[in-house]
Amino acid sequence: MLTPEQFFAFLAAAILITASPGPDNLMVLGFGVSRGRRQGMVFGLGCALGCLSHTLLAAVGISGLIAASPMAFGALKVAGGLYLLWLGVQALRSRGGAKVGTVAGPQLPLRALFAKGLFANAINPKVVLFFLSFLPQFVIADNGHVALQTVQLGLTFTLQAAVLFGALGYFSGSIGQWLQRRPGAPLWLDRIAGVIFIGLGLKLIAGR
To answer: Whole-structure pTM over 0.85, yes or no?
Structure first.
């Protein structure tokens, strides 16, 4: 099982990263604003559950690397740290220009909308790379059960994303109007996410 320190540190980072403006949550807002809160919530739930496939890949890959070669796992952590540093720099350089727009296209049934969010997240290679970069730093290899730790972390990320995306879909109208009135809000969310990414990246590279 995850230690309390492990769980709450990961949860705090995951919530802040999920809340920062990005394609998934802006799409959820777009669906909610243009088509209604149920559509936004269903699409957001699909996006969140798409993380389960990345969790499985990360659990198999990370545990396999540790079993095969601790040196290879160390190389993965360094590569992941560099990737997180790059994401952090990109977020800090962002001008906070993300906007909530309407989502064009025909009206889809809820089942198809859920599948669209699930599929869009599951096949996104950037999310695969993010999971392989983000999860290993919260895995304590000395505690054993690496795959189980990774699965628990992935499930935690998925559940908090489902809650946040569901809330975004439900309150999409109010949140969209608030963001449009405060164009500086996405900028500060990007700045917070950038600092988190850089801190996590440095921790991955410097930590043993």
So the answer is: no
